[in-house]
Structure formats: structure tokens, C-alpha cells
Write a structure and sequence with these properties.
alpha+beta, 10-stranded mixed sheet, Pseudouridine synthase, 4-stranded antiparallel sheet, Structural Genomics Hypothetical 15.5 Kd Protein In mrcA-pckA Intergenic Region, Chain A, 26% strand
């Protein structure tokens, strides 16, 4: 049985699929003594080298993979290294040998909330890929005069850099003063997408918290700067979720209920409810360095 090179190396925990594709383009990867190319098919017997060093690929890395849920504080960056010396989300994660933590998506330095890390780069790819349509949910504190017509625009979609972006749901929260809280859901993870969408209607996001990523909820017991590691049973359910959810197609705008208002939260269908609850459980939280 053969598989694509970047998929095999990502699943082995050597990096994200995007990272590995970059290494291949830079001619840093070889297979059986020959410079590798993107999309190359490899077998379990193939020998791999990165930067001239032999790397060992486990035959069944899924059983050895680890996944963390991390509560990112404001002030941390999502890069591994920073010329300015700012604290990274990777600084407080457990040390690994022969593998790397791969982040499932990113949050900007001023955004807090839930992040997911795994040692299986192929799993991370599945959870991030737009074709999966996996939901991201945020709490937004918004400053500005937001009218019902503005919410309708965000519900129907606004164009950012030529691409149509829209919230799957918008729910207004109880608020006072000039700032108002909203709970929004979207299925993509473009650069600063939530902030830019609110900005397109003349509003400013003064605080942004990611509270859910797919089946993962930001639990109250997970304090800022702490992480939880999934149990083996939760990890198995996560793999099943990633396989099934990648086949979920985003509903077309024409099929959406016309009676639904943008300020009302959309009820999840039975399948969504089942997927959200598959990984519930409260493994012990552990501390990580905080940059706040």
C-alpha cells in the first residue's frame, strides 16, 4: 500500500502538512536516497531523511498520537519563534522527542480562548481543511452602532479580499453601554476573519474569545494558560469525528430557512449535537506558561 509522502510525515508528528510541503519544495526531504517531490507515493519500507538526517516513521502513529486542549491567554503568539521575544503558545506545552506539537488553526495575539494541539499533522490537516466545514464559535465584544441590517449583511456574507465570508449564526447577548456581546459561528479560519467581518460594517471588536472548535468546548475549569490532554478513549472518538466530519458539506444559502433571523441562534441538527458531545470529559488540567 502506498501513500503520499507529506501525509505520511505529517501523521508521524514531524510537522503540519503545510510545513512538510514547504520542506519538500526546499529540497530538504529525501526518500530512499533521492530528493523528494510533493505528492510522491511512499511505502512502509521507504527510508526518509530530512536535512540529511534519518527520521523514523512509526507504522501506526495514530495509536501514539497525543492531543491537547489549551486555553490561550491574550498576549501570546502562535509562532514557534519570535524575533521580538514574545511568549509563544508552544512555550508551556509538554516537551516531545522526535515529534512536534501542531496547532489546529491559530489565534492572533489579542485573541484568547480555545486552541487544539496534536502530534498528528494529518489529523490537524483534517480538522483545519475548509472542505470539512468544521465550526468555530466565538464570543465577540463589539463597539459601534450595529443595526439589524448590518447583522443581515454578516449573515448573508460580505466580501473580504474578493472572497465571500459569512457567519453561520449570530446571537446577541445581554449587554450594557456602548459595547455589546455577540456569539458567532463560522466554518472557516481565514486571517483575522471575525475582526475583519465586523470591521466591514463599521464596528470594532474590542475583545474576542474562541469558545468552541468542532466538538471541543472551552470548559470553565480550564483556566487561562492551562491545557488538558485527551484521554485514549477521547482520542479514538476524535479520529472518528475527523473522518466523518470531513464529509459534512456546508448547506447552500438557498437551502437555509428564510424565517430565521440573523440574531437568532440556529438550532443544531441531531448530527451536530452528537458530534459536539462525543469528546466530553474532564481530564486533569495542567499549567502552562502565560504571556498575559
Amino acid at each position: 500500500m502506498t501513500e503520499r509522502l507529506q501525509k505520511v510525515l505529517a501523521r508521524a508528528g514531524l510537522g503540519s502538512r503545510r510545513e512538510i510541503e514547504g520542506w519538500i519544495r526546499d529540497r530538504r526531504v529525501s526518500v530512499d536516497g533521492q530528493t523528494a517531490v510533493i505528492g510522491q507515493q511512499v511505502t512502509p519500507q521507504s527510508r526518509f531523511m530530512i536535512d540529511g538526517r534519518t527520521v523514523k516513521v512509526e507504522p501506526n502513529p495514530a495509536g501514539l498520537a497525543r492531543t491537547l486542549l489549551y486555553h490561550k491567554p491574550v498576549g501570546q503568539i502562535c509562532s514557534r519563534h519570535d524575533p521580538q521575544g514574545r511568549t509563544s503558545v508552544f512555550d508551556g506545552l509538554p516537551r516531545l522527542r522526535g515529534r512536534r506539537w501542531v496547532s489546529v488553526g491559530r489565534l492572533d495575539i489579542n485573541t484568547s480562548g480555545l486552541m487544539v494541539f496534536t502530534t498528528d499533522g494529518e489529523l490537524a490537516h483534517r480538522l483545519m481543511h475548509p472542505s470539512g466545514g468544521i465550526e468555530r464559535e466565538y464570543r465577540c465584544r463589539v463597539r459601534g452602532n450595529v443595526r439589524p441590517a448590518d447583522l443581515q449583511r454578516l449573515d448573508q456574507g460580505v466580501r473580504l479580499d474578493g472572497q465571500l465570508c459569512r457567519f453561520e449564526s449570530i446571537q446577541a447577548q445581554k449587554s450594557t453601554g456602548s459595547n455589546r456581546w455577540y456569539q458567532v459561528v463560522l466554518r472557516e479560519g481565514r486571517y483575522r476573519e471575525v475582526r475583519r467581518m465586523w470591521g466591514s460594517i463599521g464596528a470594532t471588536v474590542s475583545r474576542l474569545i474562541r469558545v468552541r472548535y468542532g466538538p471541543f468546548q472551552l470548559e470553565q475549569g480550564l483556566r487561562s494558560g492551562q491545557y488538558r490532554e485527551l484521554t485514549p478513549s477521547q482520542h479514538k472518538r476524535l479520529y472518528r469525528f475527523a473522518q466523518t466530519d470531513s464529509q459534512v458539506k456546508r448547506p447552500s444559502h438557498a437551502k437555509r430557512s428564510q424565517a430565521q433571523t440573523p440574531a437568532a441562534k440556529k438550532p443544531a441538527n441531531k448530527g451536530q449535537k452528537a458530534r459536539r458531545s462525543t469528546l466530553r470529559g474532564k481530564p486533569r488540567a495542567r499549567g502552562a506558561k502565560s504571556g498575559a
